[in-house]
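## retry 2 of 3
previous attempt timed out at serialization; input unchanged, resubmitting
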Amino acid sequence: MKLTKFEIARILGARSLQISNGAYATVETNETSSLKIAYEEIKKGKVPLKPIRE
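## retry succeeded, writing output
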């Protein structure tokens, strides 16, 4: 499923918050910023969140 830029922004924010609150990252990275880690997860397709389309 291809994500729109709005879905990417929403998922990026939600996942970044989860990571900053202590959730484990699903990708191996050297980044320290939760936003950059979440973006890498989205690029690699490993983010554990999906948008609900109605």
